[in-house]
Amino acid sequence: MEIELSEDLQHYKESLVLGLTAKQFLFSALALGVGTGIVLLLYEKIGITLSCYVATPFVVPLALTGFYNYHGLTFWQFAGKMIYFSFFNRPLVYGSTESVQELKQIYMETRQEEEREVQQRKKEQKKEKKGGDVNVVKKKAIRMGIVTVVMIVLGAAAAVWYKMYR
Q1: Can you give the residue ranges of every domain in the chain?
Q2: Which of 60, 69, 91, 134 is most exposed, with the fewest beta carbons within 10 Å of its own?
């Protein structure tokens, strides 16, 4: 017998108060208490604005501990990974398995192949130029002849029109 559950049920969390889970409620109450305590202790000495600024670094991590979740990591796990990857991560270094002689030999082989290909292309281009130049010149000459004939015919037609209708 198989019972299929919806994916929404896998992420179900029971709410305790105002739609918050027990963890979220506990840490939001703790953050509120810490923030209120710091502000009440400091507002007479440094003012309300500065006391709020002093309380913020204490309140934000507490609130994030209860609410923040990124790919299954809590706030402190995520912060630890970010610090590790920012400061303690070793760079990846590629270590070649080939010796210097092997690399030189591979380089020389690829260079020789490239030179052969270049020489072969040059030979093919020379062959095309020898046979192709004559054909190109013929085509240009034919086009020029056609354009010349068309221009002469148009000039004659213009002269006839000018004589007849003037």
Answers
A1: 12-88
A2: 91
